[in-house]
Design brief:
Number of domains: 2
Strand content: 5-15%
Structural class: mainly alpha
Order of helices and strands: HHHEEHEE
CATH class of the largest domain: Mainly Alpha
Number of helices: 4
Strand order of the largest sheet: 2-1-4-3
Helix content: over 70%
Number of strands: 4
Distance between the termini: 5 Å
Largest sheet: 4 strands, mixed
Bound molecules: zinc ion
Shape: rod-shaped
């Protein structure tokens, strides 16, 4: 039947429009993932830079600490001794605090490095998924194209066999009606628009000796069975 061929051709056209959008969505997902990965990498760099900064500060404190300790052996007065002792305590505390910061940084760096490694795995999986989808898509397009080809051949073949007036009306209707353009009428009701048709027309339809259109939706209508389309 020509109408079932055309319905299939409509489905194929819709599918061919839909699939590129699915591919685009995957591409968007990949872009998002890439941005997240770059963000994670730059966070990692910031953490490493922070750690280097505190380590440099520690390197500067170290000689001051040693110098103060050395001076402790050369003090002349009790007062001076206590002042240096206080200075040493303060430097010790400072070193302790900075070392704590370094440890904290190292923990965060470790976490962030794991995250970046996971991102790498995720990226590879997404890439693979995308490539598979793309391959499927191209294969599907090929399938659909060859189906279209054979449907069109079949349609041409059938077109030569049906009533040419009917075919012209049908093709004209297809231009401005979406979907089915031929509808059965059951109990006075057109199945295309679900509105009733006049009793006289219904009787003519049952007789089946003339081409009838629904007065409401203009679809070609028939009573029971099918008319070759
Ligand atoms: Zn109708």
């Amino acid at each position: 039947m020509i109408q079932s061929i055309d319905t299939r051709l409509d489905d194929i056209r819709r599918e061919k429009e839909q699939t590129p959008r699915e591919i685009e969505k995957l591409e968007d997902d990949l872009d998002l993932l890439k941005k997240a990965m770059e963000q994670d990498l730059s966070s990692l760099e910031e953490l490493k830079e922070g750690r280097r900064k505190v380590e440099r500060e520690l390197e500067e404190i170290e000689p001051r600490f040693k110098k103060s300790k050395a001076r402790l052996n050369e003090v002349k007065s009790n007062k001076e001794y206590h002042a240096i002792l206080k200075e040493i305590e303060e430097l010790k505390e400072l070193i302790f605090q900075k070392e704590e910061v370094v440890i904290k940084c190292m923990e965060e760096i470790e976490i962030q490095e794991k995250e970046c490694a996971n991102n790498g795995v995720r990226w590879e999986q997404s890439q693979k998924g995308y490539k598979n989808k793309e391959k499927q898509f191209l294969e599907r397009m090929k399938e659909l194209d060859s189906e279209v080809q054979s449907l069109n051949d079949r349609r041409t073949e059938l077109s030569q066999k049906v009533d040419q007036d009917l075919l012209r009306t049908y093709n004209g209707l297809r231009m401005h009606l979406k979907g089915r353009v031929i509808a059965p009428v059951i109990d006075f009701v057109c199945q295309g628009c679900h509105l009733g048709i006049p009793p006289q027309q219904y009787n003519d339809l049952i007789k089946g000796d003339s081409l009838q259109s629904c007065p409401n939706c203009n679809r070609i209508i028939y009573w029971g069975g099918n008319n070759g389309l």
